[in-house]
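Worked Example 4.2. Read the sequence first, then its structure tokens.
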Amino acid sequence: MDFTDAERQKVYDANAARNGGDCKCDYCGQEVERRLSREANGNANKVRPDDAQIDHIEPRARGGHGSAHNGAVACRRCNRDKSTKTMEDWDDELRDFLEP
């Protein structure tokens, strides 16, 4: 199940509260910016690494739902890398992934 606009907003609000008003990736800590979706702004090729995205902590593919407590703010890089992995599956890969 996807996030409703209200549940998505709750995830962003909780993230900002934890980060002094800034929006940061819950996984790597990079500052991210909330932008209009690619479809809404009409430019499907204009994606940026600091795009804020909402990730299902427990992936939809594994039964995760779209409520705020299953959501995390993620940078594009982390969200794409985590993909449909659980946090346990991704945790071991994350250390290597985030190293320069």
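Now turn to a second chain, presented in exactly the same format:
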Amino acid sequence: MKVSRIVANIATPDIALAKSFYHDILGLELLMDHGWIATYGSQEEMGIQISFAAQGGSNTPTPDLSIEVDDVDEAYARMKESGFLIEYGPADEPWGVRRFYVRDPFGKLINILAHK
């Protein structure tokens, strides 16, 4: 047996709120919409990962999701411009990433990062 996919599920009474953050800003595609569940993602092949953490590094809270992007500064500017709450960074971390924390429309703490 092997794991072929891991999906994060975020409970919310208003799934339409996901569009502005995950589609409009981060550019994820709407892969599935059944009315009661909307799945955003990418058709690109990605590695399967699940992390367990006592903290988020640099003594920050553990984020709910980590999303790797190709341009952290562009993502940061788009989040700020759209009014999303930035809670940390952007910061160049000693383990080789540039990142910031932002709250999504559901209050989840999202770690947006790129490897340097």
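Notes for the reader: The mean pLDDT is 96. Helices lie at 18-25, 72-82.
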